[in-house]
Amino acid sequence: MSAIDAAAAATGIDSFGLMERAGAAAAAATLRLHPGALRFVVLCGPGNNGGDAYVAARHLLESGATVALFHLGDPAKLKGDAARARAGCALQGQELGLYRPGAGDVVIDGLFGAGLGRAVPAGVAALTKRVAEAGIAVLAIDLPSGVDGRTGKVLGAAFRARNTITFMTRKPGHLLMPGRELCGELEVFDIGIPARIIRAEAGGAIAENTPDAWKAVLPAEQLETHKYRRGHLVVFSGEADKTGAARMSAASGLKAGAGLVTIAAPDAAMAANAAHLTAVMLHAIDDAAELEDWLSDTRLQTFVLGPGFGIDARARAYVTALADRRLVLDADGISSFKDDPQQLFDLFRGEPRLVLTPHEGEFSRLFPDIGGDDALGKVDKALAAARRANAAIVYKGADTVIASPDGRALINTNAPAWLATAGSGDVLAGIIGGLLAQGLPAFEAAAAGVWLHGEAARRAGKGLTAEDLAVAVLPL
């Protein structure tokens, strides 16, 4: 956003005009959201976020509201647009530490915004605690102070906002946890920066995961088609007492649009699988040699390995045999390479055809140095892992990040809280496999699969089981 602001100014756009519109939008939102407030308490920081807050305070005062203003640092040291905004506000502020929450207060947080790069001062940390304990509603300008706009991490302490007002476009900290939760309800206001400048400066490398990010690569629907044109997905089953996970993956791949789905199972697990399958086919595979023979059928190009499979050398041998095919590696498949991740990465060079779907623990096992680097945010970690593995990475969680080796990353936001249930990851692996089988590139298949997964959870509703989730999957 700093680059966008500078580029806008370079084209002749009045930077103070942008600040004026931002502050006016914050004031208008405050009045709309809190018509019953007895007092608006405006907290002004030492930079342009504070400038927005001074403008908001002026508009609130002119509207007839009761307004109190508190500032961080010496306001006489403000420069540029922020100094001009302060000069235009008739209120005489007090030092921030003097504020004591009162009944009927609403706090407008204009201390730091999205540009904070270090832990908040002790006085601010103490204030966030007092405000939270008093149950005072907070409206944040741009981002709750204390939240890192790049990573969503809390830098020491942060306000928990009921509403956040930001401008032109969301920042990663609005979507990544815990920032997303601390923002409350988020609104984005257009303050007059041309979209062409935002596109040119932001680059589009990091975005929200929506259909716009991948719909261009979806296969065209054709009347004259057959099952093999829609792809053949193979899902590997575990032993006889661990077959359910593979069946959920297989069912989900079929629902996601694969033309055929086969479960490849040990001979001892064939009966357990056969008792529960109809549209999904079965094929017996007991070892890597049998798999190699089966792979002579060149129509077999897309595989899911991991759900319920077991963590062992057999998993590594199967993955080695599949090195020239498209593969979704999940759960036990990922953990099977924890002692030598590079062995896995070396198998899948060239055009990306591997999708890895780790949760936090699996990510740390496969990428211990990246996972343990506290200086990196979730997007940074996912991108570093994608480059190292030459794979599409689905870094799972409430804020799942999908990353590509070429530097693209998408943050997913459509997953409801009730998606966190046993077997949910098996369903996701199957959906991604079904999309890979239809010819989507690895990154786009992963991103579309994560989005479909979230939509299925919304359709299934609260209290869903993994079986409910698989049934609720719809093709793109």
UniProtKB/TrEMBL annotation:
One of its GO terms (biological process) is metabolite repair. Coiled coil: none annotated. Pfam families: Carb_kinase, YjeF_N. GO terms for molecular function: ADP-dependent NAD(P)H-hydrate dehydratase activity; ATP binding; metal ion binding; NAD(P)HX epimerase activity. It catalyses: (6S)-NADHX + ADP = AMP + phosphate + NADH + H(+); (6R)-NADHX = (6S)-NADHX; (6S)-NADPHX + ADP = AMP + phosphate + NADPH + H(+); (6R)-NADPHX = (6S)-NADPHX. Its EC number is 4.2.1.136, 5.1.99.6. Its cofactor is Mg(2+); K(+). The keyword NAD applies. Residues 1-199 form the YjeF N-terminal domain. K(+) binds at N49, D109, S145. Residues 210-476 form the YjeF C-terminal domain. (6S)-NADPHX binds at residues 48-52, 113-119, 142, 245, 308, 359, 426. InterPro entries: Carbohydrate_kinase_pred_CS (IPR017953), CARKD (IPR000631), Nnr (IPR030677), Ribokinase-like (IPR029056), YjeF_N_dom (IPR004443), YjeF_N_dom_sf (IPR036652). AMP binds at K396, G397, A398, D399, T400, G425. In the N-terminal section; belongs to the NnrE/AIBP family. In the C-terminal section; belongs to the NnrD/CARKD family. HAMAP family: NADHX_dehydratase, NADHX_epimerase. Bifunctional enzyme that catalyzes the epimerization of the S- and R-forms of NAD(P)HX and the dehydration of the S-form of NAD(P)HX at the expense of ADP, which is converted to AMP. This allows the repair of both epimers of NAD(P)HX, a damaged form of NAD(P)H that is a result of enzymatic or heat-dependent hydration. Catalyzes the dehydration of the S-form of NAD(P)HX at the expense of ADP, which is converted to AMP. Together with NAD(P)HX epimerase, which catalyzes the epimerization of the S- and R-forms, the enzyme allows the repair of both epimers of NAD(P)HX, a damaged form of NAD(P)H that is a result of enzymatic or heat-dependent hydration. Homotetramer. This is Bifunctional NAD(P)H-hydrate repair enzyme. The gene is nnrE.
